[in-house]
Design brief:
Length: about 350
């Protein structure tokens, strides 16, 4: 692994969290008021610990977002707005994947296809280049990579181990072998090994099984994952098989991982459609973990699991019930920016 390039883990110090405010031109239009309240709660939680960099599609939206945040008591000194066009608000997948490059940074700009061409994504695919061109990032280089990859599809332990799901990457690149995809990921992301999960999925997830809905590193030797303990649930067999795969994985030191199974929320239905209410879609920030809450009895138990997995960090629930209507949750709409990156 290069000594000059390194892919930092999410729990390392951050300068800010990047997100994009929903508006009537996004898929949130039909339930905009509900999702805006989730964004208010999310930015309020972030800014208790660090700044938020909020993309807005013009001055009118900037004023609207600022007014809503101010009325909720959010410290606007901790919020930085940036005006830019975007198709939607899934910044985990359209935002930059940042490597440390010596004393500076490298912004990796993978091809964003809206999860295999499911939606229009022309403006989202240009987002990283526009953020970089605007000078938002101190001394970062920019590298465009002609390979479809979303930030939600990968996890790193910050020490050269990558975790991903074969279902997602194979769906994006059906003509490439596992060896070819592994080599490309390890080269671009500066990883020394890749751990693949072949099992695990969530109904209502249109990302083709992003790893950030299923299993997440909590430390180089620890993984938090979404479990299912209901034999009558349609997910039971698949998530049990995924749990067995995780138990068989070994750290770089050839030790089993410490595993933290998250509880299973009751089915959330929207007009008969099952929504992907995963507790694994949490966001690690400075001194805290922001946890997606769904108004379910399992919320409290999920918070306790995360407290056990992240000792010393405050666990902050954020109401994400409105987000899963569009098939994502808290981690999906955010992208952490490493310490020192923001100009």
């Amino acid at each position: 692994m290069s000594q000059l390039l390194r892919f930092p883990a999410e729990w390392e110090p951050q300068s800010a969290v990047l997100l994009a405010w929903p508006h009537e031109g996004t898929d949130w239009a039909d339930r905009l008021a509900q999702v805006e309240q989730t964004y208010v709660g999310l930015v309020a939680a972030i800014t208790r610990f660090q700044p938020a960099l909020v993309c807005v599609a013009g001055p009118a939206l900037r004023a609207r977002a600022a007014a809503q945040l101010a009325s909720a008591g959010v410290d606007l000194d901790q919020v930085r707005f940036f005006e830019v066009d975007y198709d939607d608000t899934w910044l985990r997948d359209s935002g930059p994947i940042t490597l440390r490059e010596g004393p500076g940074y490298r912004l990796l700009d993978f091809h964003f296809t809206a999860w295999g061409g499911k939606f229009e994504a022309g403006r989202d695919d240009q987002l990283v280049a526009r953020l970089h061109a605007a000078g938002l990032f101190r001394d970062a280089s920019h590298r465009r990579v002609d390979f479809a990859l979303e930030g939600g599809g990968i996890e790193t332990d910050g020490r050269g181990t990558l975790l991903s799901t074969w279902r997602c990457l194979h769906e994006r690149h059906p003509g490439k072998s596992r060896a070819e995809i592994t080599a490309l990921l390890e080269n671009e992301l500066v990883q020394s090994r890749t751990l693949w999960l072949d099992r695990g999925y969530l109904e209502g997830d249109d990302t083709d099984a992003h790893i950030d809905t299923l299993a997440r590193f909590a430390a180089p030797d620890a993984i938090v994952y979404q479990a299912c303990d209901d034999p009558d649930d349609s997910h039971y067999a698949e998530l049990q098989a995924m749990a067995a795969e995780l138990a068989a994985l070994r750290t770089a030191d050839d030790q089993p991982y410490r595993l933290f199974p998250l509880p299973w929320a009751r089915p959330v239905l929207d007009e008969g459609r099952r929504l992907a209410a995963s507790y694994a879609n949490f966001l690690i920030i400075n001194d805290a973990v922001l946890m997606p809450a769904y108004g379910d009895a399992a919320d409290e138990a999920a918070a306790q699991v995360l407290a056990d997995a992240f000792p010393g960090r405050e666990i902050v629930p954020v109401n994400c019930r409105p987000l899963i209507w569009q098939n994502g949750s808290l981690h999906c709409v955010t992208m952490q920016l490493p310490e020192g990156l923001l100009a």
